[in-house]
Structures are given as C-alpha cells and as structure tokens.
Design goal:
Its main location: membrane. The chain is an all-alpha fold. The chain has one domain. It is built from 13 helices and no strands. Helix 3 packs across helix 8.
C-alpha cells in the first residue's frame, strides 16, 4: 500500500542520501591507510549477523546457482569497497563523494554501449559537464595532477558500473530475493577482506581494541545508518513510491558529501576547483533527469513509455 503523504514517503529516502553523503567523512574518521581492511572486516562483521537474521528464510530459498552468482558479484563488490575506502582515506571527503557520483554517468554510458542504443543528447552534454567538473576538482583548477586517492575513487566508480551491469545481466541471480542476494554478496566480500587482513596491516581485533568512543561512534554510523538503515529504506521505498523518485532523491548524495566535506571536514578549494564542484553536481543531476522515466500520469492521461531499471533486484547500500 502506498503511503498517502509525499513527505512520509520521501523523507526516509532523503535521509539515506544524507547519511551516504556523510559516509566518506565517517571513513576518514575511522580508517587509516594501514587499517582499511581491518575496518571493513569489523564493519561487515557487525552487519552480516543482523542482516542474516532477517534474511534467514530467504537464504534457504536460494539455489546453488544463485549462491554462486551472488558470490561472484560479492567479489566485484569487495573490489568496490577496497578502492573506495582506500581512496577516501587518501583524498578529501568532498572529492571522494563527488568523484564516486560519476557512477550515475558511467552506468548509462556503459549500458548504452553494451546494448548498442543511443542516449539522449542532453545526457551526453551532462556527462561532458560532469567530467570537466572532475578535471577541475581533482586537478585543483588544472594546477596539479589528481591525487592517488582521487584515482582510486574514480576506479571504484568504474567498478561500480561493472557491478550494476553484471547484476542486471547475470541470469543466475534473476528473480533472487534482494535481501538474500545482498547478504550473499556482502558475505563474499567480507570473506575476501578477512583472508587479506593478515597481510594488510594490524589485525581487525587489535584495530577494534585501539578505537576510542569517537571511532566506535563513527563505525556504528557506517554500520547502522549507512548500511542497514539505507538498505531497509530502499526496500520499503521502491514499494511505497516509484523507483524513479527513489533514484532522484538518492541522487542528492554528492550534494550532501560536499556539504559535510566543506562544513565539517573543513575541505577548502580554489575558485576553479569550486567551479568543478558545481559542474559535477549540475552534470550528474542533469544527466539523471535526462534518462529518468517520467512520473506516472494523472488519471485520464496517456502514460509515457518507461525505461526498465537496470538492476532493481539485489540493490545494495552504497559502498563507502
């Protein structure tokens, strides 16, 4: 049943965009370059039992092919988390949040190339605007080369695109319960982190023991709000409102990343780099609107043709 009040429908989804925007700042408060993998093990070690308890019945309904397909998707997801988290600790929170938003541009471009379809000219113009913005932002107005952290987050945006397209086209997971598929993917990624942790800095246990109250508060923010809350709101929202509306609201994430980076983390930019921030926000929003299906028509109107979402089942909380 759809909730009658638009505010009730939209506010939780907007809150997800806000907490996702804060996630890059949270990562920088918890992880250091040599504790990234340990932090990921602890973070998802807390998420998996809760999610698994809720998904236990759906997990029993998965077949061998769905487990294998979810595991393969989880390996890709693990790569996203590693690239994005390592990138976030090596660049500013604002840069990380804005660069990763290029996924919204890369995914339709890649899908169009694979399907051999043409995108609207408005979208192509928006993509060019976003890429120019990234060049200005990461190059500080062209005065320096992008940092290693910027390039890692850019790589994460590319791998995110691969993940979305693979999920959309993998026959083994079509029709799989989204909650169960999410658990399998996160579990596979966590196994990778756990296996890598002995070779990548301090153990998860020693890192967790070294955290003070502030670090634990930020980690719980990542765990409870950026992962569990975000996922369950998405599951509710696609039933209570339209996927297009959810996409538009969640698309404000880079705006919130910039807000948190500038106001809380104290990120500062030159004039050209600040112009890059504006171009990225404008370009990603313009591009998303250029390909987002029109809202449902009023009674008596003819419905506009609607484009099927690339990968609705198994949609995951944004890695950060």
């Amino acid at each position: 049943m759809r909730t009658s009040s638009p505010i009730v429908r939209d506010l939780p989804v907007l809150l997800v965009a806000v907490v996702w925007g804060s996630s890059f700042l949270a990562v920088k408060q918890v992880a250091e370059p040599d504790t990234v993998i340990a932090m990921l093990v602890v973070r998802f070690g807390l998420v998996l039992p809760v999610l698994g308890l809720v998904a236990r019945r759906a997990l029993r309904g998965l077949g061998p092919r769905e487990w294998l397909g979810g595991g393969l998707l989880g390996l890709i997801l693990g790569g996203i988390f590693l690239l994005e988290t390592y990138g976030a600790v090596h660049t500013s929170a604002t840069n990380a949040g804005l660069v990763i938003s290029l996924t919204m541009i890369f995914t339709p471009l890649a899908e169009s190339a694979v399907a051999r379809t043409r995108l609207p000219r408005a979208f192509l113009a928006a993509a060019a605007l976003s890429l120019l913005g990234v060049a200005l932002l990461t190059g500080d107005g062209g005065l320096r080369a992008p940092s290693g952290g910027d390039l890692l987050v850019l790589g994460a945006a590319v791998v995110r695109t691969v993940h979305v397209l693979t999920m959309a086209r993998m026959k083994a997971v079509r029709g799989a319960d989204s909650l169960a598929l999410t658990w399998v993917q996160l579990a596979a990624a966590t196994v990778v982190f756990a296996l890598a942790s002995p070779f990548a800095g301090p153990s998860p246990w020693s890192v967790a023991a070294s955290w003070g109250p502030a670090q634990w508060a930020w980690l719980l923010h990542l765990t409870v709000f950026c992962t569990l809350f975000a996922f369950f709101v998405q599951m509710w929202a696609v039933r209570a409102t339209s996927p297009s509306r959810v996409s538009l609201l969640l698309g404000t994430e880079p705006l919130w990343a910039a807000v948190f980076g500038i106001t809380v983390a104290g990120d500062r930019f030159g004039v050209l780099a600040l112009g890059g921030v504006v171009l990225i926000l404008a370009g990603t929003e313009w591009g998303r609107r250029a390909i987002t299906p029109a809202p449902a028509p009023a009674p008596g109107q003819q419905p506009a043709p609607e484009q099927e979402p690339a990968a609705e089942a198994g949609q995951l909380p944004q890695p950060a």
